Amino acid sequence: MGIREDILNAKTALGIEFGSTRIKAVLVDSTNAPIASGSHEWENRLDNGIWTYTLEDIWGGLQDAYADMAADVKKQYDVELENIGAIGFSAMMHGYMAFGKEDELLVPFRTWRNTITAEASEKLFKEFNYNIPQRWSIAHLYQAILNEEEHVKDITYFTTLAGYIHWQLTGEKNLGIGDASGMFPIDCSKKDYDETMVQKFDALVADKHFPWKLRDILPKVLVAGEKAGALTEEGAKKLDVSGKLKSGILVCPAEGDAGTGMAATNSVKQRTGNVSAGTSIFLMAVLEKDLSKAYPELDMVTTPDGSLVAMVHCNTCTSDLNAWVGLFREFMETMGMEVDMNNLYGTLYNKALEGDKDCGGLVSYNYFSGEPISGLEEGRPLFVRTPNAHFNLANFMRSHLYSSVATLKMGMDILTQQENVELDRLMGHGGLFKTKGVGQSIMAAAMNTPVTVMETAGEGGAWGIALLASYMKNKAEGQTLDEYLSKEVFAGQEGSTMAPDAADVKGFEDFMASYVPVLAAEKAAVETLKVNS
According to CATH, what is the number of the domain 2-256? Predict the structure, then answer.
């Protein structure tokens, strides 16, 4: 009855996140617990060499995910969803959506997945002395300028996918600071775009005589807790095609998936971090101060409330590991055995814990694709061992688990060894942590930091943006985002924490002592082993 009352009295918050393969909607009650959800599966498409989603994909997917969530509310609580306390939208970060004076999309949406801005990224790095990854919006804009694309002179606004949805549903051209930090570098002291770099960019393109300056076409930056607009009448109809949803609902600043991941893991406080480990892997470390210099291996973004974050991003994590588990499944099926995949994963992961701390002379590379951190534009999964290696199943599995996080460690070592960054805790979420205690202990050893896994972390970014919407509406006077999350969301949820084991830490370091030099073999494999088209 309490949940039903929350729904009827609009003491709820809704978060909708656009992931790479799924759009998910999560509704929370007055205690911030998820009470209903909906989703829509979608896939990007390659259109004239550009990875994109069409506007039809975007709106059809949003409406389907919302309708699925509303149907879940009706099924569970026998209530037609007409009002919501607050709403937030988030999406995969960065990318490029440029609009003209009639609010028309000038070129197809260019997603984060595109690697077509290398020239712009390199030139902006030198101009700003600041790492500008290829997927950042400013890299896409500058590359379009370098390519002399016709549409650039007609731009009146450009934004991210989350910013686009927010604008269309509220009429407001603003963006949460975390997502904005993937458009253009942020000055964390002012909680706004870095003005020196803005002026440098305007000077860089001044000879083009565009009718706009950079600030004219960027969204306004907002921080978590600020009111970012309200659902318009048109917006309500666009979100809920049934027409039941009321307009006027408050909407929080739109965010990127990195920011919502930080909220969903209670990792917005300085000296905390979170690591998402699945098909790809990335670690977000909330910093106490600026780094001494720019590193091409590190992306600098922010928390939803504007603290500086160093992001270590690797393209591959568990793909090779999953392929080997699939091989073991095929063997078992060939032998006439029935295979329970959860049991198979659990058995093989736990077997790894029996292995030698340094994997006994076995080394593997999980590179399904290139990894900028180790200087590879392509990848070839590779397994190598010495003739006298301790070759058994435990060491085999352990080496592949180590490999899943080895490149991440290379990036993290820049922070810990060159910048003396310290983390009090690291929150782990994603498929690597599904088998209790295994991925967690490996990660703790690799990062030499306690790793905590919470049950709620599996709710993901849609829950994270719902929490940011809830914070905007329900925070006490002067209450910080960290205080709100700790008191109103995660209080009493300690989760499971594993401290790094000294022997495991040394074993991982010994593994890396072999791993890094043998990258030469990985590079040779890329150069000589061609991929069949």
Answer: 3.30.420.40
Q: How far is CA 347 from CA 354, 435, 436, 444, in A?
A: 11, 9, 11, 20
Token code pair at residue 115: 């690697």
Residue 395, CB-side half-sphere exposure with 13 Å CA sphere: 18
Q: Residue ranges of the chain with pLDDT lower than 70?
A: 456-459, 533
On whether the 267-453+501-533 domain is CATH 3.40.50.300, my answer is: no
* Ramachandran category for residue 147: left, alpha or beta (phi over 0 → left; psi -120 to 50 → alpha): alpha
The sign of the dihedral angle between the CA atoms of 518, 521, 523, 529 is negative
Contacts of 453 (CB under 8 A, 6+ apart): 427, 428, 429, 433, 440, 495, 496
Give the whole-angstrom CA distance, residue 249 versus residue 240: 13
Distance between CA 246 and CA 83 in Å, rounded?
Answer: 6
- Domain regions of the chain by residue span: 2-256, 267-453+501-533
- What is the model's pTM? 0.89
Would you state the structure tokens that stand for residue 303, as one six-digit string? Answer: 């928390």
Q: Kindly write down the DSSP assignment for every residue of 359-401, as one continuous string.
A: GGGEEEE--SS-BGGGTBSS---EEEE-TT---SHHHHHHHHH
- Cα 152 from chain centroid? 28
